[in-house]
Structure formats: structure tokens, C-alpha cells
Amino acid sequence: MTSTTEQFADVAATTLLRFATAGSVDDGKSTLVGRLLHDSKSVLTDQLEAVERVSASRGQDAPDLALLTDGLRAEREQGITIDVAYRYFATARRRFILADTPGHVQYTRNMVTGASTADLAVVLVDARNGVIEQTRRHAAVAALLRVPHVVLAVNKMDLVGYEEQVFAKIAEEFTAYASDLGVPEITAIPISALAGDNVVEPSAHMDWYGGPTVLEHLETVPVSHDLTACPARFPVQYVIRPQTAEHPDYRGYAGQIASGVLRVGEAVTVLPSGRTSAIAGIDALGQSVDIAWAPQSVTVRLADDIDISRGDLIAPSVNPPATTQDVIATVCHVADQPLSVGARVLLKHTTRTVKAIVKEIPSRLTLDDLSQHPNPGQLVANDIGRVVVRTAEPLALDAYADSRRTGSFLLIDPADGTTLAAGMAGESFASQARTTVQADDEGWDF
After folding, report:
1. CA–CA dist 69, 48 (Å, integer)
2. What is the pTM of this model?
């Protein structure tokens, strides 16, 4: 018999998949997540008992599995998801971090939070309604955030008689739209979250479907967390100078390697100053090592005494990022207060925070048809648009398409520290969205 310790060791050895769920209101996201947790035996007994009690008090014959994720009182009262709900579970094949994101238009910004670190996004569609405007929004957000895998879960198939033609039409329309945005991989699965069809167990009602269940796909989709293939980037978090009798001259630069590999003896450039040196040593977990890779946290020692502080970036001299004070990017506006041309903000990139000003807002994206609204003047909550930001000091930015970690940044209100927008440097979509320009007097209701 396998011991508990051995079981935990087996789980620890499995790969990790971060994924987010999204979809319009009442498409069944929370029910899908609840079904996934319930049928994969990832729900504790007391949690299930609590859900059963609440469901019974409402006069429901069966447990409402959506209650497993809708934890806020307002969510349970209204039957909707408001905030991002994170859940952690594991099977014998893989560990999972799940972000259940809201479906309402006014909470689109919450999907940005949940999907920003996701390897896969599950977009739900009600089989009765097909692809709607909010479905296209969620597909576009996934494309903007460069989520590598998207699953189209056509839910409530039991309410359309499990008809193959209904599923095929929705899958074709969504796949065409997402492909135009540059989503590299799209998998369509017909399901009924309420009845459990094709969530964990194969459906007995859809013998025309021969693909995987949702859990089978989540367990087997290839996920690469190999950041070592990217150029090395080491944002400095802290300068270590003990100045003790034992270490009188020690000067180390501590931080987490954002990408790539660092090696002792390698020539490096410190940005934004542009000063060069070589790696004299790398300390990890209290020991000197010859090599370190992302996402390890290490202390780097250089051969030369260079003025380096928090926010500087150490990169190989053969492939350093370009520095700029004019940041051109796509931003998702997440604050209630608008972001206007001329606004003075703080820009936080990795460990560096600098003063900046919004010079231009060239366009705002309308996600239902991918048209561009030119020169809107400002972005409001849930808007996505292109911005040009001038920083007070140079930044070493990669394109977001090349690195989700060193190509992203935040715009912050300097008055109270509120996060205003999440930014992605460089081009917006993998394949450019249509550049149709609408007349200014048309509605621009996001």
C-alpha cells in the first residue's frame, strides 16, 4: 500500500498547469469547475457537506456544485461570479492552479488578472446561444495575453438534445475568430457541466464525439515552463553588502532569474547604465554554483565594482534588451478612474519603478468586431487600448510576444498606489486585428 508521503512525493513530481475559465454570465463556469473538482475527487468532505446543506435550504434536489467556487456572499446570493476564485487540486498525472474568472462585462478586467499567468484558458459557450460578444471578448483577451492553449467548452449540450450540428457550428465560428487573433491551439469539447458529460467521464449521449474529456485534455496538453530557452534576464531586487569581518568586501546582487541561464565567467551588461562586466560567482541556497537558471532565486557577484541598485537589469552582453524611454504597448485598464492623455503615472517593470506620462492613446479596441476607435482621449474600466508612455528614465523592455515576464508592466497612480492598467509591450495580437475605423459618433460601449 502506498504511504501518504509517497503519494505527496508522486504529486510533487508531476507537472503544473495554470489555467483560467471564462465565459458569459450563466454559461456555467462555476458549475464546470465544481463538477471538475467533485468528479476528480478533489473536494473535501466538509466542503461538499456545506454545499449540500446550502443547496437543500434552497429546495434543490442535488448539490449546486457552483457553490464550491462562488465563495463571496454576493456571489452566492446573485448566482454569479464577481471576483477571481483560485482553486488548487491535483490528479495522479498533473497539479493544477485554476482561476475561475467572472463573466460580466464590467469584470472583464478580472479575467486579465486570472489569465495573465495561465498556460491554458477554458472559454465556455452556452450551446443555446452560441458565440456571443462576451465570448469574443474573452477570446481576444486570451490572445492579447498570449495564452498558448484555448479550450472551447460548448456547455449545456443536454439542452439542445446533444446535437452534433449545434456543436460543429459553434466550434467552427469560434475557431475561425480565435485563429484570426493568432491563438496557436484551439480545442473544442462538447460538455454538460450540470450532468457531467465529457467533464471528467466520457458522455454516453455523444457517441459522435471521439475527443478527450475536459480533464483528459488538461492532464495531457503539452505545457512548457522552460524559461531557459529565452535570453537571460536578471532583475536586481536587493544589493547585499554584509561588510562584516568574515565578508568585508562581499557585494552581491540578489533576485529571481526571470528567464534564461546565467553562467560564471559570462560577459554581462547592466541596464540601463550599459556598463559591462563578467559574472564572478553565483550563490544559490548558501552555496556557490557555476550555473543558474530561471526561475531560481540567486545572488550574482560581478568581477567589477559597478554602481548597481534595485531595478537594474543584468543581461548577457551578446543579447541584451533594448532600452527606451518611449514605451509603445497595449494596456488593459483595470481601475475605476479613467486613464487620460497627459496623466502622470508610475510605471513598474520587474523590480524597477519610474515616473512616466501618458503621451498618446492612439486607439481603443472594440473586441466584438476587432475594430479600432482612433484617439479616444481616455480609457475607462475594462477598456483595452494602445498607449504611448514616456518614462523619466530608460527601461530595458522585451516585447511581450518574446517574454510574458519582462515584456509586461503596470501603470500605477502615484497618489495612492492604485493599479491603473496592465501593459504588454510591442504588438498586440500574434496576427494583427482588423484595422477597421468606426465613425466617432457610433457607440463605443465596452
Report:
1. 12
2. 0.81
